[in-house]
Design goal:
The complex is a heterotrimer. By secondary structure, chain B is mainly alpha-helical. Chain B contains 13 helices and no strands. The mean pLDDT of chain B is 84. By secondary structure, chain C is mainly alpha-helical. The chains are: A alpha/beta, B mainly alpha, C mainly alpha. The interface between B and C is large, with 56 and 50 residues.
Amino acid sequence: MRGPTAMPETLLRVSGLTVRLRGNAETALVRGVDLEMSAGEMLGLAGESGSGKTLTGLSMLGLLPPALRLGGTSSIRWLGRELVGSREREWRGLRGRDIALIPQHPMTALNPVSTVGRQLAHLLKTRRGLDRHSARAESIGLLRRLAIAEPEGLLGRYPHELSGGTCQRALIAMALACRPRLIIADEITSALDVTTQATILEQLTLLCRETGTALLLITHDLGLVARSCDRAAVMYCGRIVEQAPVEDLYARPRHPYTAALLAAVPVLDRDVDRPLGTIEGQVPDPAALPLGCAFAPRCAQALARCRTDDPGLSVEADRGYRCFAPLE
Amino acid sequence: MTRAPDLLVFSLRKLAGAMPLIVGVTLISFLLTVYFGPDPTHALLGKNPTAAEVAQLSAELGRDRSAPAQYLDYLRRLLTLDLGHSMVTGEPVRAMLARTIPVSLLLLLPGFVLGTILALVMAAVAAWYRGGWVDRMISGVSVVGMSLSFVVILIGLQAVFGVWLGWFPVRGWNVTTLPQYLHHVAVPTLAFIVASLGYNTRFFRAVLVAELNSDQVRNARAFGAGPVRLMLVHVIGNSLLPILTRTLFSVPLLVLSGSLLIESHFGIPGVGKITFDAVMSGDQPVLMAVVGLSAVLFVITVTVTDLLCRLVDPRLRQE
Amino acid sequence: MSTVAGRRVLAQLIRRPLGLLSLGVFAAYALIAVGVWLGWWGSAWFELAGPMWAPPSPEHWLGTNRLGQDILMRAVASTATAFEIAVPVALLSTLIGALAGGAAGYFSHGWLDEFLLWLMGTLDAIPFYLLVVALAFALQGHAWTMHLAMIAVFWTTTARLVRAETQRIRELPYIDAARVSGLAPAQIIGRHILPNTMAILLVQGTLVFIAAIKVEVVLSFLGIGTQDSISWGLMIAEGAQEILIGQYWNFIAASLFLFVLVMAFNLLADQLQDVLDPRSLDARAHRHA
């Protein structure tokens, strides 16, 4: 789906990714996700809670909860190497080295009995082979670039002494400290207040662009994707329903669900008089998905066909969508 | 890091806070061993004492005074370690304790330490493979261990290793050299390990599983932490509070309950043995000292536990 | 808990293999105990029924002891003794724990609460067997010494759990409604709070039952437990001497009877906890080995 001119290296190619409950062949929480990420690319993965976006991200690290498993069709290739079915050891070689995760809940993600400085230094020592002294200098540098006013002081602090925003910055610093090629940021701002959200995301994307790190931004907020990503993928009920360059997606959404999500983003509404959109109905239970398109019961455009057949992928220049009745 | 003066202030404050507990515990031991206990006057005087003799001894023993006065006197004697003499042997109680406490410690310590460590290791293995067959096997063994009475474990091991195989002595405590010590301590130590595997494995496993499912552990895995670091630093490092509390709180219980049983059964001259003998012979001064001092031991344990918890968990350090 | 809820718990227990097994074992022991009380069997445990040290045979399934008493019959009679101790201890300490915990939780941070907390802390601070020994010393062979000592110690854990639960329930809106409608605290605790702690009481009752049986064995073994009767603890005490001369049956019989019952109860407590509250398996305090 990329343009033919620039051809950066493909880092990650996910295809047919399926996540199922263990011991339940019927229910799938992720249903055949295809994704590709090139070096340095910023991809936003958006969707409501329960859409499978976090599970998609965790699958890429081999970190699915024990109750879940990958379906048989799943393939995750990192630099061409198949990861599905690899041993825990191989995954470990990837985590915190090639791929880093910035987790959802900053306040509980750090080790409570160790200082920020020790946690950062451990990564710098083991991943980058720095000695104690240069690890400290590097930590201070990283935190300073994340606009921490007094990085020296922060190093000696324990996580419970910090605000959510500071914890999140420490976690971003930890992710960057590993010098990964891909960072998966899972709802990193949802626990923070709005102003902090904006600045943290700005700092993160800036640093990623500077270092050429690819970023997979998982969020429920299409507004955030618009501000920071190159490309956006919208997930609904375990499936990517539309994927496009950010400008195209916002200017001309093809899938009715994307349009509905966009209508729910206040910042992007040009017409101030128009009320904020809400999506009628509820996200269906993954154990009882409707026949045909999963969005059909909530869709104003739905045709009779949408309720019986599963819409396949329609590819159009550098974008794709799954809909029988795309918007113009 | 906490500085030494802080620690001192903290422990003093803790001890002050434990005053009601000290009063409660000593009050109960006073009531049971002195106030409601059998009157030693007649036992001491033998048959047909005269009224004057009874009155004189009562006054000597302080039994003619009011209950509060007797209690205060009891407290004073406990605090100054003025513990009197055994009514049976006439030996000073302090000397008896000095003679028996080291024996009990030598007897109990290896089993306590090994049992706790082994239980922790088993729990860590079970927790790591939670839900799998290894976990189910360890949990099964632990329920069996929990269902075995300590008495049964003790006698069963004695029967197998002492009588049947003849490897270890069946009773007594004839210890002057290290090989003799190891020889005598083997069966009690094994018994403690079996009992600990029953009770502690289960508890430790539950604690470790809860921590393994925590956010910070998942995050550490996402950063590529290996199993050893994950278990030691992230899981056990964050479960030290319940582990320490449970382990340390079991010390006073273990020292007396454990030694009472083992020593009276194997005929080992420790604190448990003299306590048991004191009950059987109505030797009030000995019992009074043991009950009172074990209460003090408990309060000290509580304080030490609090202190250690503060050391291992920074979240408890802020006030 | 209403009888309907009680029946539902029972139905769920029976559906689990381990639940059914443990309930079955318990029922078998209860039947043995009832049979002893009704004089169906085991009442001749003290009779000299055969030669001394007889090996297992059709007349004496588990052999005889050094006086020629039938070991099986003694183990059977001991079942009744175990129930005579464990049932009242479990019932009374659960009742006391519920009342004290309910009162402390309802009036939390009042003087009653502070007093009860102090009492619990004090009782928990004295090593258990030492407390029993001291009580035995003070009461000098009174028939209920053992019961009293166990109840004095076992009620505290229940009370702590009920207290915490009461503090939680007290903040619920329907308690305010009950208060506004003019119910006295005792009525609110009795009618609206304690019935909602039934899950805790049931599990705690089971755990105390186990603890009482195990403690009886230890105390009888030490010679300060059961008097003028027969119990597994007394049999094990006999057995401990007999083992030295190679006679194992007394010890084996009593240990097995004891082990199977305690094991069944441990499993039952697990299953109960699972059925009543899937969250907090293992959150319980086992202090009395």
